Amino acid sequence: MPKIYFIIVTYNAMKWAEKCFTSLRKSSVPVHCIVIDNGSTDGTQDYIKSHFPEVSFLQSEKNLGFGKANNIGIEQAYKEGADFVYLMNQDAWLYEDSLEKLLNVYNSHQNKEEIGIISPMHIDGTEKKLDIFLDKYISYTCDKTRLISDLYFQTLKPAYELDFVNAAHWLMPKSTIEIVGGFNPFFFIMVKTMNMLTGCIIIKRKSCWFLQAKLCMTANSLWIK
């Protein structure tokens, strides 16, 4: 069984903490979790420590932003021998079989060395619609993926390559970390995802979006000051 480390950056996460961390606990694939807290003031720290003692909790004295905080978690996971690193937003959660399906599709891929980032279906907090940003990213590359055509003719593939997908749900093989590294720490939030994806493009690693696994996010987590 591969060692999978979830990295979650928190800032005033009480609104979502129970659902987020309970979903990790219920995953059909055992996971490790590292939390980097960016200076929460709503009791997030005590709640996670007392209700989810299995979580490795790292406290920052100041708000480091998304990229720099994730780098701390990625580095720690790598030192502990992670085979995969999974970046997940604090307002997101898994279904029980989400990770299992992602790994199944990854393991069945003919050229695993091509894959830099793996991301599932992003569903919004209602669990009835796709996240609005995923709709946009699909539209940007539909001429290349022919996804809409495949949908019409019911010939969907297990996975499609996208140029961009939010880092709310990113599963990265160890090799991606070794070659690309982490986020540029000078980018506080918005451009950090593009920074990592650009690194994958430069080394010809693909960002794959898998249709067989789905995960949820509320898309309203305001954890950056």
Report on this structure.
The chain is α/β, with parallel strands linked by helices. Helix content is 36%, strand content 24%. It has eight helices and nine strands. It has helices spanning 17-25, 44-51, 65-79, 98-108, 132-145, 147-152, 174-180, 192-202; strands spanning 4-10, 32-37, 56-59, 84-88, 92-94, 115-123, 159-161, 169-173, 206-217. It has a five-stranded mixed beta sheet, sandwiched between helices. β1 (4-10), α1 and β2 (32-37) form a beta-alpha-beta unit. The relative contact order is 0.20. Mean pLDDT is 80; it is low at 186-211 and 219-225.
Beta strand %: 15-25%
- N- to C-terminal separation? 38 Å
Strand order of the largest sheet: 3-2-1-4-8
- Can you tell me the overall shape? globular
Helical content, roughly?
25-40%
Estimate the mean pLDDT confidence.
80
Radius of gyration: 17 Å
Helix count from the secondary structure assignment: 8
Low-confidence stretches: 186-211, 219-225
Which class do the helix and strand fractions yield? alpha/beta
The largest sheet is: 5 strands, mixed
How many strands appear in the DSSP assignment?
Answer: 9
> What string gives the helices and strands in order?
EHEHEHEEHEHHEEHHE
What's the gist of this structure?
The chain has about 220 residues and is an alpha/beta fold. It is built from 8 helices and 9 strands.
Spell out the blueprint of helices and strands.
Layout: E1 4-10, H1 17-25, E2 32-37, H2 44-51, E3 56-59, H3 65-79, E4 84-88, E5 92-94, H4 98-108, E6 115-123, H5 132-145, H6 147-152, E7 159-161, E8 169-173, H7 174-180, H8 192-202, E9 206-217
Parallel strand pairs: 1-2, 1-4, 2-3, 6-9
Antiparallel strand pairs: 4-8, 5-9, 7-9
